Amino acid sequence: MRPLIALLLFIAAGACTLSVSTPRSFENYSVYKVFIKTRSDQQVIDQLLEQTNNYNLWHRRLHEVHIMVSPSARKNFLRIMQKENIVVELLINNVQKLIDEQG
Ligand SMILES: *[C@@H]1O[C@H](CO)[C@@H](O)[C@H](O)[C@H]1NC(C)=O
């Protein structure tokens, strides 16, 4: 087998493993609307979004983002928002419940 093909297969296998490790259930995952007033607010949010296992961007507008927060990150998220004076609004308390209701 040519080395490049072997490498591509290796990467593809890795990607499969990754997708298996993403949570199967969204139990207690919540979605927050975050009001972005300043550039620094935006930076705070962008930094959080780098933690892809805890934060997922759902929707982005100029002065507003919707992000899904993992149950383990929720407390820390709210603490940071309070500290940075960023206004948030809870949109969905339990994403899994919503999925179940729609299924
Ligand atoms: C979700 O939250 C409820 C209420 O706090 C708790 O009883 C339950 O164990 C949590 N589920 C998971 C999977 O963490």
For the structure shown, list the relevant keywords.
about 100 residues, alpha+beta, Alpha-Beta Plaits, 4 helices, 4 strands, globular, binds 2-acetamido-2-deoxy-beta-D-glucopyranose
Report on this structure:
The chain has 103 residues and is an alpha+beta fold. It has a single domain (26-102), classed as Metallocarboxypeptidase-like (Alpha-Beta Plaits), CATH 3.30.70. Helix content is 47%, strand content 23%. It is built from 4 helices and 4 strands, in the order H-E-H-E-E-H-E-H. It is globular, with a radius of gyration of 17 Å. The model is unreliable at 15-19 (pLDDT under 50). Bound molecules: 2-acetamido-2-deoxy-beta-D-glucopyranose. 2-acetamido-2-deoxy-beta-D-glucopyranose (NAG) binds next to loops. 2-acetamido-2-deoxy-beta-D-glucopyranose is lined by residues 27-28, 71. Keywords: Metal-binding, Signal, Zinc.
SSE layout:
Elements: H1 3-21, E1 30-35, H2 39-49, E2 55-61, E3 64-69, H3 74-83, E4 88-92, H4 95-102
Antiparallel strand pairs: 1-3, 1-4, 2-3
The chain binds 2-acetamido-2-deoxy-beta-D-glucopyranose (NAG).
The site of 2-acetamido-2-deoxy-beta-D-glucopyranose (NAG) has 3 residues, from loops.
Number of domains: 1
CATH top level? Alpha Beta
The tally of strands reads 4
In CATH, the homologous superfamily goes by the name Metallocarboxypeptidase-like
> So what's the overall shape?
globular
Helix/strand structural class: alpha+beta
